[in-house]
């Protein structure tokens, strides 16, 4: 693993913006389009890494995880979705840190959007 001055691992950022999927929320008869924005800090594979998807983190893996999460039934709300999305991201060994923002539109078109935002990081290796 390459490190920066000071010993921190060399990383890069993956942005997943505007992912939306219908979610079966507890207590709602509609299936609102829930929006997700994610910022992932990922371990860099180093200079001269092969042109091989296995060498880097693919955002498609994260999108597939989000699709499965959104397919769950009776989802309690935005906090749950943000928490589970963060867990799913950190289950990938290359992900060092993740910020998740979730937005759920109101049941009526004029109401406020509910949401949650959280940041989690993998414990430092030492």
UniProtKB/TrEMBL annotation:
Annotated region Disordered: the residues are 107-126
InterPro entries the UniProt entry points to: GTP-CH-I_C/QueF (IPR043133)
This chain's protein is named Dihydroneopterin aldolase/epimerase domain-containing protein
Source organism of this protein record? Azospirillum palustre
């Amino acid at each position: 693993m390459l490190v920066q001055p000071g010993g921190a691992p060399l990383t890069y950022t993956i942005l997943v913006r505007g992912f939306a999927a219908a979610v079966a929320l507890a207590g709602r008869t509609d299936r609102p389009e829930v929006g997700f924005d994610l910022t992932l800090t990922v371990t860099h594979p180093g200079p001269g890494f092969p042109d091989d998807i296995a060498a880097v983190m693919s955002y498609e893996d994260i999108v597939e995880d989000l699709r499965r999460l959104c397919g769950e039934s009776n989802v309690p709300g935005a906090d749950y979705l943000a928490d589970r999305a963060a867990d799913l991201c950190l289950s990938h060994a290359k992900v060092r840190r993740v910020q998740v923002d979730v937005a759920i539109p109101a049941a009526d078109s004029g109401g406020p959007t509910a949401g949650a935002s959280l940041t989690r990081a993998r414990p430092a290796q030492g």
